[in-house]
Amino acid sequence: MLNIAFIAHDRKKDEMVNFVTAYEPVFKEHKLYSTGTTGSRIMERTELTINRFMSGPLGGDQQIGAMVATNEMDLIIFLRDPLMAQPHEPDINALLRLCDVQGIPLATNIATAELLVKALQRGDFAWRELVHKYKPE
Prior knowledge:
five-stranded parallel beta sheet
């Protein structure tokens, strides 16, 4: 079981809900996290249980980032809106940087999200299970 987070900017929330709905059977096998509104919207349309953090601008990105920093997050799907300035851009950049530092797979568009979910279906994330198994205390 992997820890997977969903984040979507306002104009990408419908796209995220449709994506997660399409892959609901895959995601139900994992522990799911999300920023506030995105998680609520997903749960309205699916039978998935999502552990929700605050909304992104109120610190939700940073809460997910804290899990990344401690190597507790395995995969993030963050559908960003590249055409709209975000008031919490520094938080977003910090999250992206943490994913790079920790080597956490991160999709920022639907095409990459699709590739990562297909890899998840094939079992290509088994190496993350080893990270959890041998995590130093």
